[in-house]
Amino acid sequence: VWNNPGLAAPRRVLVVEDNPADLRLIREALAEANPAADILAAADADQAVALLESGAADLVLLDLNLPRADGHELLATLRSDPRWAPLPVVVFSSSDSPADIRRAYQGMANCYVTKPGQLDQFLDAVGRIERFWLRTARLPR
Amino acid sequence: LFAHSPSAIVLFRTNGTIEDLNPAMCRMLGYDRKDLEGRNWWNLLETHSMEAALAGIQRLVERRPESVEFEARMRGRSGERIWCHVGVALVPGDGEDQDGPLVQAHLVDITSSAEMQRELLQRLTRLDRQLQEEHVRAALALRESEERFRGVFEQAPIGMAIAGLDGRFQQVNSALCRMLGIDPGQAAGASWDDFLDPSADDSANLSRRAQRSPNPSAILECDTRFRARDGRCIDVQWSLSLARDARGEPSCQVGQVCDISPRKRAEAALTRYAADLDRSNRDLQDFASVASHDLQEPLRMVKSYLELLSRRYKGKLDSDADEFIGYALEGAGRMQNFVAGLLAYSRVGAPLRDCREVDTRASLEAALANLHMAVRETGATVTHSGLPRIEADGLQVTQLLQNLVANSIKFRSQEPPRIHIEAKPRRGHWEFRVSDNGIGIDPRYSDRVFQVFQRLHSQSRYPGAGIGLAVCKRIVERHGGTIHLEEPAADGGATFVFTLPDRVRTSPSVE
Questions:
Q1: Cβ contact B359:B471 at 8 Å
Q2: Judging by DSSP bridges, how do beta strands B81-90 and B68-75 pair with one another?
Q3: Between chains, do A119 and B311 touch, taking CB under 8 Å as contact?
Q4: Of B299, B304, B336, the CB nearest to A122
């Protein structure tokens, strides 16, 4: 069981983000929220899968706008593989289009968060994601 | 017998000397007996009847038949004419004296029947004359109607042709000749088939259809294409019916051809125009997504890193650096507003698709919920009356009310904003009025306020992208309504008036 008080708090986040500027912002925000958080970064779907295969992550922060296979496709790949099916995936995208949101939830994303345009709100959003999905949520493994 | 006979009897010698007569005779002619005794029979006859009477008597005397009958007109005492049927016979056993043989004449007054006959005859003559006149008139009318038909046929503005049942032309009017590029002389012998465009569907060959299954009561009709002698293509509306002869048998094809090329061209132009419009609409929607992503993203980066810079290094660099970063941040923020506003504006440009019944009171409540911070901060009071249920895009109605209320709050005067929204039914639509006690709007700019990026105030005093009212106008117009700014009242403030129809005609999407 996640977040079992007897176990060490999970803190490894896989950030799938091709934009280095955004990646840096997310790093800043995560560092602010939880200095102990461990960040793996993938710039595309293939890298993401390779990283997951080489070591477990506790949370995936997924951008939709990726080169080649986009975020929706990567989500489908994760959900169709029993190894990663229960892994919490939070879509973190600048798109607020209802079509993207609906498609992400239909693809079994755990949460959809639109990247805020203001830095404060951006930091807050990442902080909330970190707090809930790494510290509060209990998911069956 | 002689004296009491009801029929008039007179005895006279052939020279006319009356020998005797009975009272009936006197009564018939209106004479006293003594007046007639000694009178000459022949003088009692009308001149016109003399000949017939003489001939009758002569035949009686010469051929000696039993009797001779004739009709004669007698002259009565007062000059009146009396038509008589006269039967004459020689008196047997009477010797002939110098005045001639004695003749007995029986006269029957037939004046009334004779007159009837004459009148009948006159009437017959009159009828006959009328009949002849009618005949002449009918002949004239027939000729006139034929001429009129020829005129109508010949000068009709649409092409007309009379063809045999095999589709071969018998008569072609000038409009059709012009259309097909032929001389009237060339038309005979040609047939519909010669002018049907080969690319036209076979079912569009009405002449063949009429030949295959003659249904004389129906008018066949179709839009098809003809090809003129010179190769021109003509879009036509062609109708064909079968005329019947007196026995009801189909006798010929009557065709009408209307050149609809101009209409078709206009239709094609309209279709092209609609497609262009649709494409440009799609381009606009594409632009919206470009604005949403490709513009917003880099802008977000610029702004976020400026903020990060400011957060980490404010007060650590010199004061110029702080000022520069401040201006850069402000510019980036404004640009974000513009892009967001433009995006909102293009989004309400999409055709209305999702219209259902909307309670505008609930729309106002939703709008106020979105504005609750501003309402609380400014102490605004928002009242309403008569807000109806209408058919509309609910989200857009909320946005419309929200923008107008936000506008009133933003351009408030010194006093806390008081905003009243009321609706009144008009014919087929509702009229909404949103009035406030704010700073008002100069009527000179009553049109400009609805244009995109048009602002009446400095950015520093009233920040904003100048999009809100443009979005309102677009939403109202998408629903088939209108919006305008009312002339300012004496106590100031602004009043926006807009209409929304009871029911929205969802614009069909053009593919």
A1: no
A2: antiparallel
A3: yes
A4: B304
Q: What is the 3-state secondary structure (H, E, C) of B50-88?
A: HHHHHHHHHHHHHHCCCCEEEEEEEECCCCCEEEEEEEE
Cα–Cα distances in Å, from B295 out to A43, A67, A119, B292? 21, 18, 17, 6
Is the CB of B300 inside 8 Å of chain A's CB atoms?
A: yes
Closest residue in chain B to residue A122, using alpha carbons only: B304
Q: Are B364 and B370 in contact (CB under 8 A)?
A: no
ipTM score: 0.73
Segment A100-119 shows an average pLDDT of: 91
Distances (CA, A) of B169 to A25, B226, B400, B433: 86, 15, 67, 69
Please state the pTM of the whole predicted model.
0.48
State the Cα–Cα distance between residues B172 and B154, nearest whole angstrom.
8
Q: Residues of chain A whose C-beta is under 8 A from some C-beta in B? A: 19, 21-22, 25, 28, 65, 94-97, 115, 117-120, 122
Cβ atoms of B192 and B186 within 8 Å: the answer is no
End-to-end CA distance of chain B: give it in Å, rounded.
Answer: 118
Distance CA B86, CA B250 (A): 65
Taking an 8 Å cut-off on Cβ atoms, the answer to whether A118 and B293 are in contact is no
Q: Find where tokens 């507003």 sit.
A: B337
Give how far A21 is from chain B: nearest CA, Å: 7
CB contact under 8 A, B296 and A117: yes
Q: What is the pLDDT of residues B154-189, one digit of tens each?
A: 888 888 899 988 889 988 988 899 888 888 887 877
CB pairs A-B closer than 8 Å = 37
Average pLDDT value over all residues in chain B: 85
User: Per the CB < 8 Å rule, is A28 touching B305?
Assistant: no
Task: Count other C-beta atoms under 10 Å from residue B75's C-beta.
Answer: 16
User: Any idea what the Cα angle at residue B256 is, between residues B254 and B262, rounded to 5°?
Assistant: 170
Distance of alpha carbon B500 from alpha carbon A95, whole angstroms: 32
Indicate the burial class of B103 (C-beta count within 10 angstroms; 0-12, 13-18, 19 or more): buried
Are residues A60 and A88 in contact, defined by beta-carbon separation less than 8 angstroms? yes
Contact across the interface for B292 and A25, Cβ inside 8 Å:
no
Q: Which residues of A touch B297 (CB under 8 A)?
A: 19, 94
Residue from A26, A119, A120 to probe the interface with B (highest B Cβ count within 10 Å): A119
Cα dihedral value B120, B124, B130, B131, nearest 10: 150
Distances (CA, A) of B476 to B126, B287, B349, B397, B414: 82, 22, 11, 8, 30
State the Cα–Cα distance between residues B479 and B144, nearest whole angstrom. Answer: 60
Chain A's closest residue to B309, CA to CA, is: A119
